[in-house]
Amino acid sequence: MSSPKFCTSCRNRLDTGTAFCTNCGSAVRTSARAPVASSADQKNPCYAAAEQGNAEAQYLLGASYYNGVGVLQDNELAAAWYRKAADQGNADAQRDLGHLYERGEGVPQDNLQAAAWFRKAADQGDADAQRNLGSCYSEGVGVQQDNEQAAAWYRKAADQGDADAQRNLGSCYSEGEGVPQDNEQAAAWYRKAADQGDADAQYILGELYHTGKGVPQDNEQAAAWYRKAADQGDADAQEKLNELYDLR
């Protein structure tokens, strides 16, 4: 008698010969390991509540498995618990399950699934998911490429203070991708990200001050922003800073 098989995405037991999991719909890539927690796992403070269906506990238990905190690190079990929480509408779990599909950790790599889970979390206002969904639209990964949608999702995340999204939205305005080309708007969004310590945005803002693009030309401001980026290890910023000093 053959050993039972389990879906690697949601740990559901599979019928013999099935091509798709009846629980989560994923294409089957089976594992012979059942979703049975060890006695050590069951001592995790989230385990009992997760087993009883508490979505936040399920998410935290998934995070414990992903990070190997209090349990043995296990991406498949992380994905299984994230899915349980995500199916109950937990935005953190939906976002992190999207990341697992994006990277193929614990589940088969699947850009369509990644984008779908990012969207569920993004629709609930999760800034990280909104930015990642923006990137999906910008690059045409898991969704049809659409610069207007990319800029719209970047803006939602940027308005919540996400520095990466602010920098990306600055790039949209700089290039006129998905929004009207506007150097002043580009500089304003780069400034928001730079003020949060984003080294790439600091370097770009230095460039804008050096060239007077979207801001008044000001070599002192350029040097100040190049220095901030250089202090974080940006070699290009250090080179630009050296060039400015050579001009003096």
Q: Average pLDDT value?
A: 89
Task: State the separation between the terminal residues, measured CA to CA.
Answer: 82 Å
Biggest sheet descriptor: 3 strands, antiparallel
In CATH, the topology of the domain at 1-124 is named: Serine Threonine Protein Phosphatase 5, Tetratricopeptide repeat
Query: Could you list the spans in which at least 5 consecutive residues all have pLDDT below 50?
Result: 28-34
The CATH superfamily title of the domain at 1-124: Tetratricopeptide repeat domain
Order of helices and strands: EEEHHHHHHHHHHHH
| Estimated radius of gyration | 23 Å
The count of strands amounts to 3
Blueprint of the fold:
Layout: E1 5-7, E2 13-14, E3 30-31, H1 47-51, H2 55-67, H3 75-86, H4 91-103, H5 111-122, H6 127-139, H7 147-158, H8 163-175, H9 183-195, H10 199-211, H11 219-230, H12 235-247
Antiparallel strand pairs: 1-2, 1-3
